[in-house]
């Protein structure tokens, strides 16, 4: 018998967010925030003295983002919204799997917490390490000249 069941497709966005929060707080996170705006959702947490942020692009527009009960899940607005809901659930489930895999790698000693979550670490000023370093990395590969990752001269 053939089935079209996709693992995680029936898990609600809210359940995935709770799972992410539980994993992170179970691992020692001392703060956890979740919010949305303009078709994006974000989770942010504090671990040690550092802050981290993951941002998800949600399917649908901000106007369709739901209010009552689950503000990060698209509203049901007629027959056309079901695919957006499924995509939203899938996005949150995939983020949950990603964070679980990262924590498992840290737990097994393959990497340190900072190594695994470095790209998502929030720097003073509000940008993440990835947001700050990506332009310099792109320029270095394009030109063959290594520049400082945070706007300083190369070595």
Please report which band the strand proportion falls in: under 5%, 5-15%, 15-25%, 25-35%, 35-45% or over 45%. Answer: 15-25%
Compute the CA-based radius of gyration. 18 Å
Question: Order of strands side by side in the largest beta sheet?
Answer: 1-2-3-4
Number of strands: 4
Count of individual domains: 2
Please give the largest β-sheet. Answer: 4 strands, antiparallel
Question: Uncertain regions: pLDDT < 50 for 5+ in a row?
Answer: 1-5, 61-80
Overall morphology: globular
Q: Give the structural class.
A: alpha+beta
Instruction: Name the quaternary structure.
Output: single chain
Q: What gap, in angstroms, lies between the N and C termini?
A: 61 Å
What are its keywords?
155 residues; alpha+beta; 4-stranded antiparallel beta sheet; 4 strands; disordered N terminus
């Amino acid at each position: 018998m053939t089935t079209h069941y996709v693992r995680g497709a029936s898990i609600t966005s809210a359940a995935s967010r709770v799972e992410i929060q539980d994993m992170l707080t179970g691992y020692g996170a001392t703060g956890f925030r979740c919010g949305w705006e303009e078709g994006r959702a974000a989770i942010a947490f504090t671990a040690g003295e550092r802050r981290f942020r993951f941002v998800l692009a949600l399917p649908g527009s901000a106007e369709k983002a739901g209010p009552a009960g689950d503000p990060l899940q698209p509203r049901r607005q007629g027959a056309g919204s079901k695919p957006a809901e499924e995509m939203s659930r899938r996005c949150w489930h995939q983020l949950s799997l990603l964070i679980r895999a990262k924590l498992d790698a840290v737990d097994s000693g393959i990497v340190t917490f900072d190594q695994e979550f470095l790209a998502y670490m929030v720097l003073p000023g509000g940008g993440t390490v990835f947001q700050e370093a990506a332009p310099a990395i792109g320029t270095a590969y394009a030109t063959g000249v290594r520049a400082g990752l945070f706007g300083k001269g190369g070595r």
